[in-house]
Amino acid sequence: MSTSLTEKDTTPWYRQGWPWFLITFPAIAVVAGIATFVIAVKTFDGMVVDDYYKEGRAIVQTMGRAEHARELGLKADLKVRSESIRIELSAANAADIPERIRLTIAHPTRGGQDQELTVARSGDRVYESAIAPLSTGRWLFLIEDESRSWRMNGAASLPAEMDLTIDPSV
After folding, report:
1. Is 13 in contact with 19 (CB distance < 8 Å)?
2. Rg, Å, the chain Cα set
3. Measured at the alpha carbon of residue 103, what is the angle toward residues 98 and 108, in degrees to the nearest 5?
4. Beta bridge partners of 102
5. For the chain, what is the largest distance between any 2 Cα atoms, rounded to a whole number of angstroms?
6. For an engineered disulfide with 104, which of 16, 40, 142, 165 has Cβ 3.0 to 4.6 Å away?
7. How confident is the model at residue 56 (pLDDT cuts 50, 70, 90)?
């Protein structure tokens, strides 16, 4: 059975597949745009820091504390083990080594795994403490005296770097 050019398909356009196929993608884009707009209007992002001036001043103070550690000639050698940490702290003047230090072990992306410890000196310049096991990945170590007059910080990728030296003068 052959059709001639004079015979036409009389089905309406909305009963054919191609128009709906061509309309689908722009329609999905419009619906997604409306959904994105609704989410943007209904949620409040807020400022990351409400008082940015105060935060800026705190950063300057933090830099001053790191500078003070440099002036004291402090240097720390950390040995991280599965459930313990050993810190050997040295200074230009042995009298500058405190009886206790504050140690913060922080994961950059998982705040629930952070640990804050106050560690007493167990030897001449050695501090040892038990810690919760640290998972594989990058960890930040912050050492301060109890009065927070100085601070030193360093980072290590565990388990590759189990020994870490923090030297603020470098």
Report:
1. yes
2. 31
3. 150
4. 118, 144
5. 107
6. 142
7. confident
| Residue 62 to residue 56: CA distance in whole angstroms | 10
| Cβ contact 105:135 at 8 Å | no
What are the Cα distances from residue 122, in Å, to 91, 101, 128, 142? 16, 11, 7, 19
What is the residue-wise DSSP string for the chain? ----TT------GGGSHHHHHHHHHHHHHHHHHHHHHHHHHHS----S-S-HHHHHHHHHHHHHHHHHHHHHT-EEEEEE-SSEEEEEEE-SSGGGS-SEEEEEEE-SS-GGG-EEEEEEB-SSSEEEEE-PPPPSEEEEEEEEETT-S-EEEEEEEETT--EEEE-TT-
Distance from C-alpha of 19 to C-alpha of 116, rounded to nearest angstrom: 63
Average pLDDT over residues 133-158: 93
User: What is the pLDDT at residue 32?
Assistant: 97
Structure tokens at 110: 């998982």
Residues 81 and 68: their CA atoms lie apart, in Å, by: 29
- How far, in Å, CA of 119 to CA of 33, rounded? 54
Residue 66 backbone dihedrals phi, psi, to 5 degrees: -65, -35
Q: Per-residue confidence at 57, pLDDT binned at 50, 70, 90?
A: confident
